[in-house]
Predict the structure.
Amino acid sequence: MQNINKESVIRYVGESKQQVIDSRDVAKMIGKRHRDLMRDIRRYISDMEEGAILRSRDMDQNPKLDSAQFFIESSYVSQQGKELPCYLLTKQGCEFVANKLTGRKGTIFTATYVSLFNEYEAEHNGKVAAIDNGLEHEKLAYKREWLIEMRKQNVNKAHELRNQDVKLYLELGKVADDYQRPRMAADFRNEAIRAMSALPVGARREYSATEIGNMIGVSPIAIGKWANKLGVKRDADMSYRDHDGAWRYFPEALKVFQDNALEIQDDDLGL
Protein backbone atom coordinates (compact mmCIF):
# COMPACT_ATOMS: atom_id res chain seq x y z
CA MET A 1 0.00 0.00 0.00
CA GLN A 2 1.56 3.33 -1.05
CA ASN A 3 1.94 6.32 1.26
CA ILE A 4 -1.02 8.68 1.00
CA ASN A 5 -0.96 12.43 1.71
CA LYS A 6 -4.12 13.13 3.69
CA GLU A 7 -4.02 16.83 2.82
CA SER A 8 -4.35 16.10 -0.92
CA VAL A 9 -6.76 13.14 -0.60
CA ILE A 10 -9.38 14.21 1.93
CA ARG A 11 -11.56 17.25 1.24
CA TYR A 12 -14.83 18.77 2.33
CA VAL A 13 -18.06 18.86 0.33
CA GLY A 14 -21.54 20.26 0.83
CA GLU A 15 -22.89 22.71 3.37
CA SER A 16 -22.22 20.21 6.14
CA LYS A 17 -18.50 20.13 5.17
CA GLN A 18 -18.54 16.33 4.99
CA GLN A 19 -15.12 14.68 4.64
CA VAL A 20 -14.76 12.56 1.50
CA ILE A 21 -12.17 10.69 -0.58
CA ASP A 22 -12.20 10.65 -4.39
CA SER A 23 -12.95 7.23 -5.90
CA ARG A 24 -9.76 7.54 -7.99
CA ASP A 25 -7.70 7.69 -4.81
CA VAL A 26 -9.62 4.77 -3.33
CA ALA A 27 -8.92 2.74 -6.46
CA LYS A 28 -5.19 3.36 -6.01
CA MET A 29 -5.37 2.35 -2.35
CA ILE A 30 -7.01 -1.01 -3.07
CA GLY A 31 -5.08 -1.73 -6.28
CA LYS A 32 -8.12 -1.75 -8.57
CA ARG A 33 -8.75 -0.03 -11.88
CA HIS A 34 -10.94 3.03 -11.44
CA ARG A 35 -13.51 1.93 -13.98
CA ASP A 36 -13.88 -1.38 -12.15
CA LEU A 37 -14.41 0.41 -8.81
CA MET A 38 -16.97 2.71 -10.49
CA ARG A 39 -18.81 -0.36 -11.73
CA ASP A 40 -18.82 -1.85 -8.20
CA ILE A 41 -20.05 1.41 -6.62
CA ARG A 42 -22.90 1.69 -9.13
CA ARG A 43 -23.91 -1.84 -8.21
CA TYR A 44 -23.74 -1.00 -4.48
CA ILE A 45 -25.94 2.07 -5.06
CA SER A 46 -28.41 0.02 -7.08
CA ASP A 47 -28.66 -2.56 -4.28
CA MET A 48 -29.13 0.19 -1.68
CA GLU A 49 -31.88 1.86 -3.67
CA GLU A 50 -33.72 -1.41 -4.17
CA GLY A 51 -33.58 -2.03 -0.43
CA ALA A 52 -34.72 1.54 0.26
CA ILE A 53 -37.67 1.12 -2.09
CA LEU A 54 -38.77 -1.97 -0.20
CA ARG A 55 -38.55 -0.11 3.11
CA SER A 56 -40.32 2.95 1.73
CA ARG A 57 -43.47 0.96 1.11
CA ASP A 58 -44.10 1.13 4.83
CA MET A 59 -42.35 4.48 5.53
CA ASP A 60 -42.33 7.74 3.59
CA GLN A 61 -38.64 7.81 2.62
CA ASN A 62 -36.61 9.03 -0.35
CA PRO A 63 -34.91 5.92 -1.83
CA LYS A 64 -31.75 7.84 -2.78
CA LEU A 65 -31.03 9.14 0.69
CA ASP A 66 -29.29 5.94 1.79
CA SER A 67 -26.73 5.82 -1.03
CA ALA A 68 -25.88 9.54 -0.72
CA GLN A 69 -24.61 8.89 2.79
CA PHE A 70 -21.99 6.59 1.29
CA PHE A 71 -21.31 7.66 -2.30
CA ILE A 72 -21.69 11.17 -3.77
CA GLU A 73 -21.79 11.61 -7.54
CA SER A 74 -19.04 13.87 -8.89
CA SER A 75 -16.81 14.35 -11.94
CA TYR A 76 -13.28 15.33 -12.95
CA VAL A 77 -11.48 16.52 -16.08
CA SER A 78 -9.08 14.00 -17.61
CA GLN A 79 -5.68 14.81 -19.09
CA GLN A 80 -7.37 14.82 -22.48
CA GLY A 81 -9.76 17.55 -21.30
CA LYS A 82 -12.79 15.27 -21.04
CA GLU A 83 -15.22 15.43 -18.13
CA LEU A 84 -15.52 11.96 -16.64
CA PRO A 85 -17.61 10.62 -13.76
CA CYS A 86 -16.31 9.66 -10.34
CA TYR A 87 -17.64 9.26 -6.81
CA LEU A 88 -16.75 10.89 -3.54
CA LEU A 89 -16.71 8.32 -0.76
CA THR A 90 -17.65 9.31 2.77
CA LYS A 91 -16.15 7.50 5.73
CA GLN A 92 -19.17 5.18 5.62
CA GLY A 93 -18.59 4.64 1.90
CA CYS A 94 -14.98 3.64 2.51
CA GLU A 95 -16.14 1.27 5.22
CA PHE A 96 -18.67 -0.22 2.80
CA VAL A 97 -15.97 -0.82 0.17
CA ALA A 98 -13.60 -2.26 2.78
CA ASN A 99 -16.25 -4.79 3.86
CA LYS A 100 -16.45 -6.03 0.28
CA LEU A 101 -12.72 -6.72 0.16
CA THR A 102 -11.26 -9.96 1.46
CA GLY A 103 -8.03 -10.88 3.18
CA ARG A 104 -5.00 -8.66 3.62
CA LYS A 105 -6.14 -6.09 1.03
CA GLY A 106 -9.31 -5.31 2.97
CA THR A 107 -7.42 -5.05 6.27
CA ILE A 108 -4.82 -2.65 4.85
CA PHE A 109 -7.43 -0.44 3.17
CA THR A 110 -9.47 -0.26 6.40
CA ALA A 111 -6.42 0.77 8.39
CA THR A 112 -5.47 3.36 5.74
CA TYR A 113 -8.80 5.16 5.39
CA VAL A 114 -9.52 5.10 9.13
CA SER A 115 -6.11 6.67 9.83
CA LEU A 116 -6.58 9.28 7.11
CA PHE A 117 -9.96 10.42 8.38
CA ASN A 118 -8.96 10.39 12.04
CA GLU A 119 -5.67 12.25 11.52
CA TYR A 120 -7.29 14.85 9.29
CA GLU A 121 -10.12 15.43 11.77
CA ALA A 122 -7.68 15.71 14.68
CA GLU A 123 -5.55 18.26 12.85
CA HIS A 124 -8.60 20.26 11.77
CA ASN A 125 -9.98 20.33 15.31
CA GLY A 126 -6.56 21.46 16.55
CA LYS A 127 -6.55 24.36 14.08
CA VAL A 128 -10.06 25.37 15.14
CA ALA A 129 -9.01 25.22 18.80
CA ALA A 130 -5.99 27.40 18.04
CA ILE A 131 -8.23 29.96 16.33
CA ASP A 132 -10.61 29.93 19.29
CA ASN A 133 -7.71 30.43 21.69
CA GLY A 134 -6.45 33.33 19.59
CA LEU A 135 -9.86 35.00 19.70
CA GLU A 136 -10.05 34.47 23.45
CA HIS A 137 -6.66 36.14 23.89
CA GLU A 138 -7.86 39.08 21.79
CA LYS A 139 -10.94 39.43 23.98
CA LEU A 140 -8.83 39.36 27.14
CA ALA A 141 -6.43 41.93 25.70
CA TYR A 142 -9.35 44.18 24.79
CA LYS A 143 -10.81 43.87 28.30
CA ARG A 144 -7.41 44.65 29.82
CA GLU A 145 -7.05 47.80 27.68
CA TRP A 146 -10.58 48.83 28.63
CA LEU A 147 -9.84 48.43 32.35
CA ILE A 148 -6.62 50.43 32.02
CA GLU A 149 -8.48 53.22 30.25
CA MET A 150 -11.23 53.27 32.87
CA ARG A 151 -8.61 53.46 35.63
CA LYS A 152 -6.91 56.40 33.90
CA GLN A 153 -10.22 58.23 33.61
CA ASN A 154 -10.98 57.64 37.29
CA VAL A 155 -7.55 58.93 38.32
CA ASN A 156 -7.95 61.98 36.09
CA LYS A 157 -11.36 62.64 37.62
CA ALA A 158 -9.83 62.44 41.10
CA HIS A 159 -7.22 65.01 40.06
CA GLU A 160 -9.93 67.33 38.78
CA LEU A 161 -11.91 67.07 42.02
CA ARG A 162 -8.80 67.77 44.08
CA ASN A 163 -7.96 70.84 41.99
CA GLN A 164 -11.52 72.12 42.37
CA ASP A 165 -11.20 71.77 46.16
CA VAL A 166 -7.96 73.72 46.12
CA LYS A 167 -9.52 76.54 44.10
CA LEU A 168 -12.54 76.61 46.40
CA TYR A 169 -10.40 76.93 49.54
CA LEU A 170 -8.31 79.70 47.97
CA GLU A 171 -11.46 81.60 46.96
CA LEU A 172 -12.80 81.22 50.50
CA GLY A 173 -9.49 82.57 51.82
CA LYS A 174 -9.93 85.68 49.70
CA VAL A 175 -13.48 86.13 50.98
CA ALA A 176 -12.19 85.81 54.57
CA ASP A 177 -9.59 88.47 53.79
CA ASP A 178 -12.31 90.78 52.52
CA TYR A 179 -14.16 90.37 55.80
CA GLN A 180 -10.91 90.89 57.72
CA ARG A 181 -10.88 87.40 59.22
CA PRO A 182 -7.16 86.56 58.96
CA ARG A 183 -7.35 83.41 61.09
CA MET A 184 -10.18 82.03 58.97
CA ALA A 185 -8.31 82.99 55.80
CA ALA A 186 -5.23 81.17 57.06
CA ASP A 187 -7.29 78.06 57.82
CA PHE A 188 -8.74 78.02 54.32
CA ARG A 189 -5.30 78.40 52.77
CA ASN A 190 -3.95 75.59 54.93
CA GLU A 191 -6.80 73.38 53.70
CA ALA A 192 -5.82 74.27 50.14
CA ILE A 193 -2.22 73.25 50.85
CA ARG A 194 -3.32 69.95 52.40
CA ALA A 195 -5.54 69.24 49.39
CA MET A 196 -2.68 69.94 47.02
CA SER A 197 -0.27 67.62 48.88
CA ALA A 198 -2.79 64.78 49.28
CA LEU A 199 -2.73 62.88 45.98
CA PRO A 200 -5.75 60.63 45.31
CA VAL A 201 -5.25 56.87 45.72
CA GLY A 202 -3.46 55.50 42.66
CA ALA A 203 -2.71 59.01 41.41
CA ARG A 204 0.61 60.50 40.34
CA ARG A 205 2.28 63.82 40.82
CA GLU A 206 1.16 66.35 38.23
CA TYR A 207 2.36 69.72 37.02
CA SER A 208 0.87 72.76 35.36
CA ALA A 209 2.44 74.34 32.29
CA THR A 210 3.59 77.22 34.51
CA GLU A 211 5.34 74.86 36.94
CA ILE A 212 7.17 73.02 34.18
CA GLY A 213 8.00 76.30 32.47
CA ASN A 214 9.58 77.57 35.68
CA MET A 215 11.65 74.39 36.00
CA ILE A 216 13.26 74.67 32.57
CA GLY A 217 13.12 78.47 32.21
CA VAL A 218 10.48 79.01 29.53
CA SER A 219 6.96 80.42 29.32
CA PRO A 220 3.79 78.33 29.85
CA ILE A 221 2.89 79.07 26.23
CA ALA A 222 6.11 77.40 25.10
CA ILE A 223 5.25 74.33 27.18
CA GLY A 224 1.81 74.10 25.56
CA LYS A 225 3.29 74.51 22.09
CA TRP A 226 5.94 71.82 22.63
CA ALA A 227 3.46 69.51 24.34
CA ASN A 228 1.67 69.36 20.98
CA LYS A 229 4.90 69.08 19.02
CA LEU A 230 6.26 66.23 21.16
CA GLY A 231 2.96 64.32 21.24
CA VAL A 232 2.58 64.75 25.01
CA LYS A 233 -1.03 65.90 24.77
CA ARG A 234 -1.94 62.85 22.68
CA ASP A 235 -0.68 60.42 25.32
CA ALA A 236 -3.04 59.80 28.27
CA ASP A 237 -0.10 58.41 30.26
CA MET A 238 1.58 61.83 30.17
CA SER A 239 -1.20 64.40 30.35
CA TYR A 240 -4.90 65.18 30.68
CA ARG A 241 -7.19 68.16 30.45
CA ASP A 242 -8.92 69.19 33.66
CA HIS A 243 -12.47 70.44 34.23
CA ASP A 244 -11.50 74.02 33.36
CA GLY A 245 -9.74 73.00 30.15
CA ALA A 246 -6.21 73.46 31.50
CA TRP A 247 -3.59 70.86 30.67
CA ARG A 248 -1.98 68.93 33.53
CA TYR A 249 1.23 66.96 33.04
CA PHE A 250 2.53 63.82 34.75
CA PRO A 251 6.19 63.06 35.61
CA GLU A 252 6.61 61.16 32.33
CA ALA A 253 5.77 64.39 30.48
CA LEU A 254 8.16 66.39 32.64
CA LYS A 255 11.00 64.06 31.62
CA VAL A 256 10.14 64.58 27.92
CA PHE A 257 10.27 68.35 28.40
CA GLN A 258 13.56 68.12 30.31
CA ASP A 259 15.09 65.92 27.59
CA ASN A 260 14.18 68.57 25.00
CA ALA A 261 14.84 71.59 27.23
CA LEU A 262 17.55 73.17 25.05
CA GLU A 263 15.38 73.14 21.93
CA ILE A 264 12.39 74.49 23.86
CA GLN A 265 14.52 77.29 25.39
CA ASP A 266 15.96 78.28 22.00
CA ASP A 267 12.51 78.30 20.45
CA ASP A 268 11.09 80.39 23.28
CA LEU A 269 13.88 82.92 22.79
CA GLY A 270 13.27 82.95 19.03
CA LEU A 271 16.71 81.56 18.24
User: Anything to note?
Assistant: The chain has a mean pLDDT of 76. Residues 204-271 form a domain with the Multidrug-efflux Transporter Regulator; Chain: A; Domain 2 fold (CATH 1.10.1660.10). Strands lie at 10-13, 18-22, 71-77, 83-89, 207-208, 239-241, 247-249. Residues 55 and 61 are 8 Å apart (CA to CA).
